[in-house]
Amino acid sequence: GQQVMQIPQYQHVQEGEDFTTYCNSSTTLSNIQWYKQRPGGHPVFLIQLVKSGEVKKQKRLTFQFGEAKKNSSLHITATQTTDVGTYFCAGALNNAGNMLTFGGGTRLMVKP
Amino acid sequence: GAVVSQHPSRVICKSGTSVKIECRSLDFQATTMFWYRQFPKQSLMLMATSNEGSKATYEQGVEKDKFLINHASLTLSTLTVTSAHPEDSSFYICSASWASGRGADTQYFGPGTRLTVL
Lengths: 112, 118
Known about the structure:
The complex is a heterodimer of chains A (about 110) and B (about 120).
Chain A: E1 4-7, E2 10-14, E3 19-25, E4 31-37, E5 44-49, E6 55-58, E7 61-65, E8 71-76, E9 85-92, E10 100-102, E11 106-111
Parallel strand pairs in A: 2-11
Antiparallel strand pairs in A: 1-3, 3-8, 4-5, 4-9, 6-7, 7-8, 9-10, 9-11
Chain B: E1 4-7, E2 10-13, E3 19-25, E4 32-38, E5 44-51, E6 57-58, E7 67-73, E8 76-81, E9 90-97, E10 108-109, E11 113-117
Parallel strand pairs in B: 2-11
Antiparallel strand pairs in B: 1-3, 3-8, 4-5, 4-9, 5-6, 7-8, 9-10, 9-11
C-alpha cells in the first residue's frame, strides 16, 4: 500500500533559525497537503500542492512539490515560538477518492 | 467557514461500555467524513471513510463490529466504540470534506475526542 514517510521525526531549533521537513511517497501522488497540529489541538489545513514542481509561499513558510510528484518539503524561515507544533504531510492518490495518507509528522520545538 | 465540531471532547468510561462520538460539519455539506485515531506523539491513523447514506469503508485491521460508523446525513457522522476496553483509549478525530471533482479535497478536522477507558 501507499506509504508516506516524513523526516525528521523531531527538530529542536533556536528561535530565528530555519526549519525544513521532508515528505516522501512510495507512489506518485495526485496532490499533497500539509497540516499543522498544535500541542493538544487538531490538525489544521495549511496548503495543497497539485502541480509538478509547484512552489507556494505563505509568509515565512515555503512549500515545494517535487517534479516527480513523489516528494515535498516545507521550509520555515526564521522560526518563531508560534511555529511550535507537529507538521504533517498527507498524500493523495489519483484513484483514492478523497482519502489521504498521512506522514508520520515532524514535531518542531522552538527555543526562545 | 468549513467548521467541524465533535462531541464529546472528552469521555471517561468503564470497560465494557459503549461510547458514541458525533462529528458534525457546521457550515457545509460533507460528502465524505473520515475517522482517525491518534496515539500520543504519533501520526493520524485512518480508521474508516464514510459517505453519506452508504456503508463505511474500513481500513485493514479495524474491526467493523467494534467501531460502528453511521453517516446518516451530509452533516453528521457518528462513531460508536462498542464494548470499550482500556486499549481503545486514544484520541479520535474526525474530518469532513466535500467533493470538488478535482481529486482529493481538503479535509477539515474536528477538535477530537479523547477517550479514556478504565
